[in-house]
Design goal:
The chain is of the alpha/beta class. Helices cover 19% and strands 32% of the residues. The protein contains four helices and ten strands, in the order E-E-H-E-H-E-E-H-E-H-E-E-E-E. The strands form two sheets. Strands 5-4-3-6-1-7-10-9 form an eight-stranded mixed sheet. The chain has a two-stranded antiparallel sheet with strand order 2-8.
């Protein structure tokens, strides 16, 4: 069974973006970012919510095109629609059965890209297997929380931690079971 890996940048106070989706304080270069870019090459599938996909438009992503050319994309949305989507980009309604079936398919681990609310929904439903945080040495004080507004208690086990000269750390956790939802 494939794992879903939530691999995301976060501030020390647990935000994946600041107010108004501001990500300007997050590192855009350095050894930690290089490691992240290298790690992305091991995934063949990416999942995300509509807001995360549309966030890519700010950085030149064209609607219906893959954000990661080497990955199949599943965007979970009830409202997003493309006229001429690339074959690698599929919009599907938020459906736990689809996600569970995707995990059973052959392939690499599945990259969960961004999306605090989508990640919170997945965590609440026990579908995230690993959390990999790019912890930036910043405090944002507000914005989009790591797991959105979902209130879930889950045990994690740290399995790896790498520190970089700029203060970033990449910390990998295995996800235990959801304690309450």
């Amino acid at each position: 069974m494939r794992k879903i890996v939530y691999y995301v940048a976060t501030s020390l106070d647990g935000y994946i973006a600041g107010e108004n989706d501001d990500v300007s304080m997050f590192a855009v270069g350095g050894e930690g970012v290089e490691q992240y870019m290298y790690d992305l090459q091991s995934f063949d599938t990416v999942i995300m919510g509509r807001r995360t996909y549309e966030f890519g438009y700010r950085f030149g992503l064209e609607p219906g095109q893959p954000a990661y050319p080497h990955m199949d994309h599943f965007i979970y949305s009830s409202s997003l629609c493309f006229d001429n989507a690339n074959d690698q980009v599929k919009v599907v309604p938020p459906d736990l059965n689809h996600l569970e079936a995707l995990k059973k398919e052959c392939g690499s681990e599945i990259y969960l890209c961004g999306g605090g609310n989508f990640a919170g929904w997945l965590m609440k439903n026990g579908l995230i297997d690993e959390v990999k945080l790019k912890v930036n040495p910043i405090i944002l004080g507000g914005g989009i929380r790591l797991f959105g507004e979902h209130k879930v208690q889950t045990k994690l086990k740290m399995v790896y931690c790498q520190s970089y000269p700029d203060g970033m750390q990449i910390i990998t956790f295995e996800v235990g079971h959801v304690l309450n939802n």
